[in-house]
Amino acid sequence: MLFINGRILSKTETGLKGTAQFSDSMLIQDNKIVAVGSHDEVAKTLGSDVEVRDLNQRVLLPGFIDGHMHLLLLGQSLRKLDLSRCTSLDDIQFCIRQYAAENPDIPTILCKG
């Protein structure tokens, strides 16, 4: 089966500056991914009798990629005091003191940045 005209996730990098690379075609033969790349690249590996599916620019995540998210961690992260703009220990201490004064009912202050 040949998938064309899609956004097929073909490479990811992790970390804060992680990026994703997408290709537009993917060929599957005998239940295995045989080729991922541009339509011209994948067409070089085609057999004679291949079913073609147009993805209409939809995203396809190949099965060997564990596409999931940590919803709980995201929620916890959004509740943390963002210290990323602080440039010194004094800035950090000031921001935490100010946040504590504005939020006296919070028993524990969690920070990020």
Model description:
The protein is of the alpha/beta class. The protein has 2 domains: 59 residues, Urease, subunit C, domain 1, CATH 2.30.40.10; 42 residues, no CATH class. 24% of the residues lie in helices and 29% in strands. The radius of gyration is 23 Å and the shape is rod-shaped. The two termini are 46 Å apart.
**What does the overall shape look like?**
rod-shaped
- Kindly report how far apart the N and C termini lie: 46 Å
| Helix percent band | 10-25%
CATH architecture of the largest domain: Roll
Q: Largest sheet, order of strands side by side? A: 5-4-1-6
Mean pLDDT: 88
Cα Rg: 23 Å
| CATH homologous superfamily identity of the largest domain | Urease, subunit C, domain 1
Task: Please mark out the parts with pLDDT under 50 across 5 or more consecutive residues, or reply none.
Answer: none
SS content category: alpha/beta
Strand content: 25-35%
Summarize the structure.
With 113 residues, this protein is α/β, with parallel strands linked by helices. The chain contains 3 helices and 9 strands; from the N terminus they run E-E-E-E-E-H-E-E-H-E-H-E. Helices cover 24% and strands 29% of the residues.
How do the helices and strands line up, and which of them pair or pack?
Layout: E1 2-4, E2 7-12, E3 20-23, E4 25-29, E5 32-37, H1 39-43, E6 52-54, E7 59-60, H2 71-78, E8 81-82, H3 89-102, E9 111-112
Parallel strand pairs: 1-6, 2-7, 8-9
Antiparallel strand pairs: 1-4, 2-3, 4-5
Protein name: Amidohydrolase ytcJ-like
Domain Amidohydrolase: 51-104
GO molecular function, one term: hydrolase activity, acting on carbon-nitrogen (but not peptide) bonds
